[in-house]
Amino acid sequence: MHLSAPRTHAHKHARARRLTPLSYHVVVTASGKENFITHTPVSAPFQLYKWFSCVLRDTYKKVCCCCCSLVNAAATAAAAKTDQGRKLQEVLRQLSDVKDSVQFNEKMLSSPPENIEDCCCLSALECFRANMQVHLNVTGRKLHKLLRSLKNPLTLSGLDSCKSGNDTLTCHDCDSHPKVNVQEFFNRLESLIQRAISRLVMD
Length: 203
Description:
CATH topology of the domain at 70-163 and 172-202: Growth Hormone, Chain: A
CATH class of the domain at 70-163 and 172-202: Mainly Alpha
Strand order of the largest sheet: 1-2
Helix content: 55-70%
Number of helices: 6
Structural class: mainly alpha
Largest sheet: 2 strands, antiparallel
CATH superfamily of the domain at 70-163 and 172-202: Interleukin-15/Interleukin-21
Radius of gyration: 40 Å
Shape: elongated
Order of helices and strands: HEEHEHHHEH
Number of strands: 4
């Protein structure tokens, strides 16, 4: 009866090493001696896990940056609309002060209509401002403050309601608008400012 020799502890380790593939590379020292350095290769599932983690981390960073940009843009737009609305309310108060200082005589002024197209609001505003500056005999700080406010960037941006694609519309020259009396002139300017305020509130 043939008896096999019992497997030693060293045999078990030798088999374990054979089951786990090893790779090695040679390092040559300064003395010329070769040293073999072995390592166990990383498994494919682990490499896939590391790659997927990197992709998720990068995606998360991009999404966070995008969300922060959108929030900042929305906050900036909301603040701009608030400033525009306040400035237009100030224009209405200054306009009321000027109306109280003007005698409504028979003078006739070119005035844009109340139903002016959105893309012509700035042109209409300039027409009102030019007519007041040239034809109204109002002196003092009240008219000066109103004329200055009508040129303010916040006033201009608040009235700029021209949507993209409609900016090719040709607006009428100021002198081509029909002439109205001074009271109607101020009423139409007031209507234009109130229209811009309402639009800011609705947007």
